[in-house]
Amino acid sequence: MESNLITEDKQKNKLEKAFEILKTMASKPSGLIGLTIVLFHVVLALISPYIAPYDYKAISPNTMLLAPSAEHWFGTDSLGRDVFTRTILGGRTALTVTFFGSLIALLWGGLLGIFCGLVGGKIDDVVMRVVDAFLSIPWILAMLLIVSLLGTSTEVLIPALGFFYGKGIVRVARAATHDVIAKDFIVSARARGHSNMSIIWNEIIPNVRDAILVEGAMRWSWMLLGFSSLSFLGFGVSPPTPDWGLMISNARGLMSFAYWSVIAPIVGLSSLIIGINLTADAFAKALGIDRSTKAPV
Amino acid sequence: MLLLILKRIGLGLITLFIVSLITFVGVEVLPGDACTTYLEREAYGAALDTCIKRLGLDVPAYERYLDWASNVVRGDFGYSLSGEMPINEVLGPRVKNSLVLASVSILIGIPLAIVLGIITALWRDKLPDIMISTITIFSMTIPEFISATLLILIVAIWLGWLPGIVIIPSDATFYELLSNIILPVVAISMIMTAHMARMVRSSVIQVMASDYVQMAILKGVPYWKMVFRHVLPNALLPAINVVALTIAWLLGGVVVTEVVFNYPGLGRLVIESISNRDLPVVQALAIILASIYVGINLIADLMTLMLNPRLKSLQIRK
């Protein structure tokens, strides 16, 4: 009974803490704007299939490159498809892929980093060398290679992005673990004879979680950037899937007289990336972590 | 000191070795080899045989790796499948073009970033800081292909000031290059400057809050003398490493920017070689780009070592 009470108490505290963090994030204008934008995009991604006025893949020669009007709010593209429909649907793939990609990156990067920080020694040296090597291959080259050899389906893209963006988290998690590991409670846990697994789970993770989560939030925006760059270059999702990167790349050639079909996806993608960035920054500040001196690796 | 430098160089070489292994094993493990990938459906009979002969795919993998690696060390990257010529000839002009683009962007970007960073730090939370910081956040977060596309739309199409895309052959002269790279340079240095300015800002703010700066203020050192003598040297030192990482990170952004502007540099070659499934060229590019990354970081490390009196004396005492 008593232990039950304690866990309930703990859970309540967790919820309260999360709420507290949200409140701190929203207390600054930049954080509030970021949260609002992200919330807007998530809600839009969830409801857009039900509110889209047209079929996103309906090609029609009669409605090619129409300027914005009452029927087509954002005009039409070179194949006569409604730009408004495609724009509000355009965030769905990007959000899904990058969200799950970030989760994978957080999991393997965080755990490997903690493990390396804890065991140290030879294993740590070797792993960090390999991570450094992966860091020194430009992300775009590695992603393009993976995608061109394995295909561009989401089943390939999610693990590929997750793997590739996790390597930076390894470093952060390792550094955070190093900060904790010299503390007395780890020493005493070792003295009590706890196993490595138990130390990782009960002592280290609660203490490095904040740093890793902040890093993960940042990765999310970089992954979104990477994913849409891939789409833009023609190596991401395949047409006719509505995707902002793909839409920009298709509409780019005709933008001298049909600028609307390139502006709409630009606004969509830019606002989402800025929103995620502002949110991640506010999140970091609310947790008391300074990210501004870090390089984007 | 010398030992430390040698150690850094050694670590860089190990990293490059691992990169070469990763790319080689990656190509090896993934389905298909260079020839079947390149020839796709025509991968049979005489065409396949010639290709295999030419790339030497008929010998075991480890022998090929050793062969390839020893050639790369001597500066020979092998044979391009789609270009039907030695990779070195393909690379030469591309490397030069990208170097021109990168160095002009860096020459503009770094001084600008330092000035902006200092301004925003000294006038922290005042109007100049708020304005500049807002702009930097925007140009930092927006993907390269979007800012480049917007630049073309606004400057080239709506205002008609500059040509939107670069239409020059890859062996253009230096002068031809310079007159064509204004927009690409703006696109690249915008993002780079934003990143670096932010780091300089927080670094300066950190130093401004330190004890010795407080001491200097209390001692009555004139404000600007304090900024230039006490704050800047200490603030810019840690920024060097971060700046190096930023430049290296931008290699990816340069690829995208080159594609948007149709600039004949290494970045476009990355896309072309991957579209053509020309794996030998992709391998060569991976090594080259990784060497640039490792090289820049090495230079930054060494510069920090040279410029930091504390580290120097530490080494001597050892």
Summarize, please.
Chain A is mainly alpha-helical. Chain A is built from ten helices and no strands. Chain A has helices spanning 2-27, 29-51, 83-119, 121-135, 139-150, 154-181, 184-191, 196-233, 244-251, 260-286.
What does this protein structure show overall?
The complex is a heterodimer of chains A (297) and B (318). Chain A has 297 residues and is mainly alpha-helical. Chain A has one domain: MetI-like fold (Orthogonal Bundle), CATH 1.10.3720.10. In chain A, 75% of the residues lie in helices and 0% in strands. Chain A is built from 10 helices and no strands. The mean pLDDT of chain A is 79. Chain B has 2 domains: 71 residues, no CATH class; 183 residues, MetI-like fold (Orthogonal Bundle), CATH 1.10.3720. Chain B has a two-stranded antiparallel ribbon with strand order 1-2. In chain B, strand 1 and strand 2 form a beta hairpin. In chain B, helix 11 packs parallel to helix 12. Chain B is globular, with a radius of gyration of 24 Å. The mean pLDDT of chain B is 77. Chains A and B meet through helix 4, helix 5, helix 8, helix 9 and helix 10 of A and helix 1, helix 6, helix 7, helix 9 and helix 11 of B.
Tell me, rounded to a whole number, the average pLDDT of chain B: 77
Largest sheet of chain B: 2 strands, antiparallel
CATH homology-level superfamily of the largest domain in chain B: MetI-like
What would the CATH topology of the largest domain in chain B be?
MetI-like fold
* β-strand number of chain B: 2
The greatest interface here is: A-B, 47 and 60 residues
N-to-C series of helices and strands of chain B: HHHHEEHHHHHHHHHH
Oligomeric form: heterodimer
CATH class of the largest domain in chain B: Mainly Alpha
N-to-C order of helices and strands of chain A: HHHHHHHHHH
Strands of the widest sheet of chain B, in order across it, are 1-2
Number of spatially distinct domains of chain A: 1
CATH architecture of the largest domain in chain B: Orthogonal Bundle
The poorly predicted ranges of chain A are none
The separation of the N and C termini of chain A measures 48 Å
State the total count of DSSP E strands of chain A: 0
- CATH homologous superfamily designation of chain A: MetI-like
Q: Could you name the CATH class of chain A?
A: Mainly Alpha
- What value does the Rg of chain A take, in angstroms? 22 Å
Please compute the radius of gyration of chain B using only Cα atoms.
Answer: 24 Å
